[in-house]
C-alpha cells in the first residue's frame, strides 16, 4: 500500500514492527508498521534522512555519507538516487535484512562492524 502512495517508510527494523501473536492458534493475528518519522514521499525525495544504518541499502548509505561530507558528485543527490530505484526498493532491502536477521539470529551488517 505504501508503494502505491509512493511513500517510503525508510526505517523498517524489528523495533518498528508490532506483532499480535496468538499462541493458542499459533498464528499472527495482526502486524503493524510503526514510526514513520523517517518516511518520505518518493516523488519529493529532498528530505531523505539517516535512519538505522544496519537496515539501509548500500546505495542509500553511500548517498547519506556523500551528503554528510557536503560533496555533490554525479548521482549522489536524492533525485538521482530515486531515479535509480523503484519506490518500493528502498524498503525491500530493509525487509530482506530484517528477514535474514529473523532467520539467522544475526543482523546483516554484524560481520562488517570494526571493518569500516
Q: What does this molecule look like?
A:
The strands form 2 sheets. Strands 1-4 form a two-stranded antiparallel ribbon. The chain has a two-stranded antiparallel ribbon with strand order 2-3. The chain is built from 3 helices and 4 strands; from the N terminus they run ββββααα. It has a single domain, classed as Orthogonal Bundle (Transferase(Phosphotransferase), domain 1), CATH 1.10.510. 28% of the residues lie in helices and 15% in strands.
Concise description?
The protein has one domain: Transferase(Phosphotransferase), domain 1 (Orthogonal Bundle). The protein has a two-stranded antiparallel ribbon. The chain is 28% helix and 15% strand.
Walk me through the topology.
Blueprint: E1 7-8, E2 17-22, E3 27-33, E4 40-41, H1 58-68, H2 78-83, H3 89-104
Keywords:
two-stranded antiparallel sheet; two-stranded antiparallel ribbon; 116 residues; alpha+beta
The CATH topology name reads Transferase(Phosphotransferase), domain 1
Query: Mean pLDDT across all residues, rounded?
Result: 78
CATH architecture classification name: Orthogonal Bundle
Count of DSSP-assigned helices: 3
Tell me roughly what share of residues is in helical segments: 25-40%
